[in-house]
Amino acid sequence: MSPRRRVQGLRREEVACSGIYRWFTHPETERELYPVEDRARQGRALVLALRIAATRRGSKPYAAKLAHRLTQHSPEFSEIWARQEVTRRFEDHKTLIHPEIGRIRFDCQALFTEDQSQTFVVLTTVPRSRDAEQVQLLNIVGQHRFTEAVEINDAGT
Fold this sequence. Notes:
Layout: H1 12-17, H2 19-25, H3 27-30, H4 36-57, H5 62-73, H6 75-82, E1 91-98, E2 102-112, E3 119-124, H7 130-156
Antiparallel strand pairs: 1-2, 2-3
């Protein structure tokens, strides 16, 4: 099923924008930023966050509809959802995999809006650590790619 297909009761854009939906329906692309050993924990955390959102909003809103649809399309989601676990993560650690830089370990903190409808995730590294150096290297890699793109566009016009 394409991430752009309509989920019953939800607009196409809502489904396409849902990282939780893509995590469980398109794991081959959505999970590549995470090390294999962290994927089960991340999937569980996503289900727990959706359960909290669904219970805060009652049975009809977006989160509840999304959870219902995922139980129909993802055995992995259904298994985690059936556990009926509820918890909130405020602090965590994450390892992400950059295709050129490699693994970068972050401290992760979640900040919630007053109505709990949105989460702002803050990723930081330990100062002067190897991970902090890799984040600095991302600045160089990003600038290099931008410069290449500009040069290619200038040459092509």
